Amino acid sequence: MTRFLLKRIGQAVVVIFFVTVIVFLLLHSVPGGPAHGILGPKASPQAIAEFNREHGFDKSLVQQYWAYLSELFHGDLGESYTLNQSVASLIGQRIPKTLVLTGLSTLVALVVAIPLGVWQARRRKGLADYAVTTVVFVGYATPVFFLALVLVIVFTQKTQLLPPQAPQTQSIGGLFADSRALILPVLAGAIATIAAFSRYMRSAVLDNLAEDYVRTARAKGASERRVVWLHIMRNSLTPIVAMLGYYLPVLFSGALVIESVFNYPGMGLLFWNAAQTSDYPILLGAVLVIALATVIGSLLADIVQALIDPRVRGTIK
Amino acid sequence: MSLSAPVAAEPPPVRVAGSYRRMASLFFANRLAVTGLVILALLLVFCFLGPLLHHTDQTHTNLSAANLSLGTGGHLLGTDDVGHDVLGRLMVGGQTSLEIGVAAGLLATLIGTVWGAISGYAGGWVDALMMRVVDAGIAIPALFLLLVTATILRPTVPVQILIIGCVSWLVPARLVRAEALSLRSRDYVQAMKAMGGSHRRAVFRHIIPNAIGTVVVNATFQVADAILLIAYVSFLGLGVPPPKTDWGGMLSKGISYTYDGYWWLIFPAGVAIVLVVCAFNAIGDGLRDSFEVRLEGR
């Protein structure tokens, strides 16, 4: 286990190094560079040269990369061009709200998808399985924004059951205080995830149904209910845990779209607004934070998986 | 080489042709896959031949004919907020979506295949390093990366193809690398190496052709994903610049009119995206099943 841990953590460190290189190079390919962004488009060449010298942007690429890394280690992601605030504090304010949104919709999705996958696997090739498979197939191909718009049309325009906008608030408590307004954004996020995870669960259960331990449990007279919901369910959850770590980028992409449709005050909306105003420090700061979250998320998922299932420790290269 | 090649090549074609025929019959027996193929064919005809029958002006705006409802003034699907015929726009927008999707999907598959084949064939630390680059790429969500690049470069069609191709090659790279890892120790690759064959020959003549099943299946999924990705970018307002449009961009304009009840600005484009993505996924599923059976039969 120690060997596995060391190896896996070492891999994550190398991946994080590559991520910082990619983001740094992107930051560098921004037209005009940071001087242009901070001094404005009308800045004179002298002022730009002065600015570059002052901030070390005239040094070699490698030197600049080291400077960038040391700033990162101090939690410094630069200053926003347009919002007059540091990127770290902006992201710090927004990320909890995005985590509430993605956390809630993933929770809803898992609560639906796991039993659905098990249920489908037990009725494999039956009419119900085909029907659900078709719905999931279409759901999987539906862009989140189209789904969100259909939800808005049905629940706010046609029936006026729910508000069309997410809660507009500064605090986390405010999100829950206006919980009715949370329903549509959470639902839009959940449906897409249900489609993916019920599929994984269905095939995981199908794989496990053919395993020897299932036959043994049945031979020992365990009830079908016990076999399915205790034995198979537990073993089928391992790949789901692993998938969750790797699913983080998809969840964040979903949040970006949902937040822009429902005007939800999270990191996705911050990112989207920054894209409209070409606020590169925010854009690349957010990309870096999400990438780090994904690397750490998949590392944790792999470790959890290795703890649950000893077979995994040997297979991860 | 010129003497031995035809002799050596003689037996395989018979077997290959036979197994491909078997594969084709398996594919066509798969109802879902055939449905996907038919839907795709119809969409292609609609987008690329449709404009020949249904002439519309998709470059000039005509505000006096804006937001007309269905059937008004000869506009079967109504008009949008600047007076473009929605049915005609669906055809033109579909051309952009399909062109970018197919080209970017194929580009991504190409990059990923070569990267994965080299990585798996090389093994050792080269493989470890190349795969960590893939992990780093996977950690950065493509949609975020695309929005960043769309603010740096003007997102014309070739630029979009290039960027989407360059950000979505990671999954095929992983899949092909796994295949290459097992293929490189096969006897025929070893034999070829022993006869003095180059690494390049091993990768391009032996590893990649033998991983072709994985590559082809994944290419169809890549196209589906690329079409979705381009729709997302356009929906978020950073797609191809007007007067060109694509299905995601059409939907993005429709969102402002949700409360006016102009549903024809939202549903036709949305349904078109779902249909085309479903079609490619269904074809991919069918191909995968028939490739698997073909390989089992060997």
Automatic annotation (TrEMBL), chain A:
Gene3D superfamilies: MetI-like. It holds the Pfam family BPD_transp_1. CDD domains: TM_PBP2. The keyword Cell membrane applies. The keyword Cell membrane applies. Keywords: Cell membrane, Membrane, Transmembrane, Transmembrane helix, Transport. Belongs to the binding-protein-dependent transport system permease family. This is ABC transporter permease. The lineage of its organism: Bacteria, Bacillati, Actinomycetota, Actinomycetes, Streptosporangiales.
From TrEMBL, chain B:
The chain crosses the membrane at residues 32-53, 100-121, 133-153, 159-176, 215-241, 261-284. It comes from the Bacteria. InterPro entries: BP-dependent_transpt_permease (IPR050366), MetI-like (IPR000515), MetI-like_sf (IPR035906), OppC_N (IPR025966). Residues 94-284 form the ABC transmembrane type-1 domain. It is a multi-pass membrane protein. Pfam families: BPD_transp_1, OppC_N. It is found in: Cell membrane. Its main location: membrane. Keywords: Cell membrane, Membrane, Transmembrane, Transmembrane helix, Transport. Belongs to the binding-protein-dependent transport system permease family. This is ABC transporter permease. It comes from Actinoallomurus oryzae. The lineage of its organism: Bacteria, Bacillati, Actinomycetota, Actinomycetes, Streptosporangiales.
